[in-house]
Amino acid sequence: MADAVAHRGPDDAGVWIDREAEIALAYRRLAVIDPSPAGRQPMRSASGRSVIVFNGEIYNHLDLRRRIAAQRPDTSWRGHSDTETLLAAIEHWGLEEALQAANGMFAFAFWDREDRTLCLARDRVGEKPLYYGRQNGVLLFGSELKALAAHPAFEGDVDRDALTLLLRHGYISSPWSIYKGVRKLPAGAYVKVAAGASRQPRAGELPEPQCYWSLRDIVAAGRAQPFEGAPEDAVDALHDVLLRGVRGQMAADVPLGAFLSGGIDSSTVVALMQAQSGRPVRTFTIGFDESEYNEAEHAKAVAGHLGTEHTELYVSARDSLDVIPRLPDLFDEPFADSSQIPTFLVAGMARRHVTVALSGDGGDELFGGYGHYISTPRRWRLLSHAPAPLRRFGARAIMAAQAQGADSLPARVLGRLPMDRGRRRLQAKAHTLAQLANCRTQEELHWLSLSLWRNPSAVVRGASEPETALNESENWPGGLEFAARLMAVDSLTYLPDDLLVKVDRAAMGVGLETRAPFLDRHVMEFVWRLPLSFRIRNARSKWVLRQVLYKYVPMRLVERPKAGFSIPLASWLRGSLRDWAEALLDAGRLRAEGFLDPRPVRRKWHEFLNGHEQCKQHLWNVLMFQAWLDRRRRNSGPGVTAA
Q1: Among the four residues 406, 475, 586, 618, which has the most C-beta atoms within 10 Å?
Q2: Per residue in 496-514, pLDDT tens?
Q3: Distance (Å, rounded) from C-alpha 587 to C-alpha 589?
Q4: Angle in degrees, CA 563, 565, 571, rounded to 5
């Protein structure tokens, strides 16, 4: 199981077994803090009572040591690793208090030899992954699914219900995984299992995860104690808390750098790193020959202004396409955020120079960076002014017209448009409008706006789509403006289940640790005290963050439309990838495999080939499942093995 995730820890390995309790802990180490033998894992506590395997970093672990030493002066330390600190904190304060005190990113398994209980825990936002579940009477857990799949008890039955989530959103939402009986431990939670509990007759009855930190609580606390200063005061206060957060995440005993796209988020992180570094910070960017996807020139300008030691790599279409066969092994379960490809490439380049890289992840969710934080409330205002019966009538009329073909729409609307592209775009917009017009609430509008396949249960055979935090709107943080609620729910869903999955697997796939200063607990707690108008002002995002950045970088170097980390997916699917896609989407193959109904899939493929650009992501979701399934079928075991 440990060998299956050797890429996550190429520096060392260890195993600890308690045969009487029937528990084994294994570890692969990426040595970042205290690379000496004193930091080796699995690590036993000084008392010998407990054992831990720990993935991640505790940024405030030296402060925790001082607190422990003040309360227990006789404490002795073998080394200076944060693993040893965490182990001592849990023994000294107990699990929940230690989790409350720790500021970092982590996933760990803690075995109490006296109480004979196993504790699995995950960081507040979900930067580090942790899967667990019962398979054939055995409790399995690990950082990646490939570790679980290496165990002889692993069953590996595909969860069709979870597959519907992939088709709708491009990722499988927590707590689900692609495998039946295997779950993702939610962010900010822990679960305790007593020895022998994993062998109870009823396989599904493991204890429910317990929450030790909740973004909903942070949002509520921010509303109860809002920031009351002037906007300029908020800029200064944010500057201070970000400086401290970045400084804490720069601690490492190995070479460290940062990803730099030249956008607001990554430029701010790099600027604050350089301001606190005695030498040029190492920064990394990849570029594309296709100008609409290339941000390398912007990053180079920011790096030049800040004086970083900058490395850029221009990648060809061939370089990107060569990554695609590796995706099923990198991500273990089907995952369809196509920016996974450039993320893997930039991580691979950075790893040749550093072991740790800071990123700007989380900035969009905190400061209102995505366009739908502005467009979705605007759509709802327009829709809500029309009576619901009128909206439903209009939606039915549009759908009926489309069912008869594009030419059924009024000639005066279509007559002046080009025969192909203009009509297709109008048809797509009309279809989207018809679907959104039926929304009864603003939360439903958001959920549907983020949906790709709108009825995935009709595509996945024998499936029923499960509830998730996205469509359980009654559990969304309350008392907020609509845009702020969208930011909060994205932080609960899209951030941990898509963005952080993408970065973790792509980077750890090459043995690179990534850190996200915007997700520092103190930064998040401060930002959620700010009024929405400090984040989105005059329909412009990230106002307060931009003011911090302007202290270091001229406005002209960073002010441009948001680009995103994307690839020319549509042209690839019609060109270099067409034969590959056609083979995976073959109707006979789909019928034989039995997971997907070929009819809607083939219909979407033909629409795409006929110029409907908006279908590309629908198809990528299906293709990532098909590629994963193909890889699984060709592997010898029931699950996905390591590359």
Answers
A1: 618
A2: 999 999 999 999 999 999 9
A3: 5
A4: 90
Superfamily covering domain 3-213:
Aminohydrolase, N-terminal nucleophile (Ntn) domain (3.60.20.10)
- What the block records as the tokens of 280 is 């040029």
Maximal C-alpha separation, the chain:
86
pTM to 2 decimals? 0.91
Distance from C-alpha of 542 to C-alpha of 264, rounded to nearest angstrom: 8
**Class for the domain spanning 215-565:** alpha beta
Q: Is the peptide bond before 152 cis (omega within 30 degrees of 0)?
A: no
Confidence of residue 207 (pLDDT cuts 50, 70, 90): confident
Peptide bond into 554 cis (omega under 30): no
Please write the tens of the pLDDT for every residue from 260-301: 999 999 999 999 999 999 999 999 998 877 666 678 899 999
Q: Any idea where the domains of the chain sit in the sequence?
A: 3-213, 215-565, 569-634
The DSSP output letter for 171 is S
What pLDDT digit, counting tens, does each position of 471-487 carry?
887 778 888 999 999 99
Q: How far apart are the first and last CA of the chain?
A: 14
Which residue's entry shows tokens 């219900």?
161
DSSP 179: B
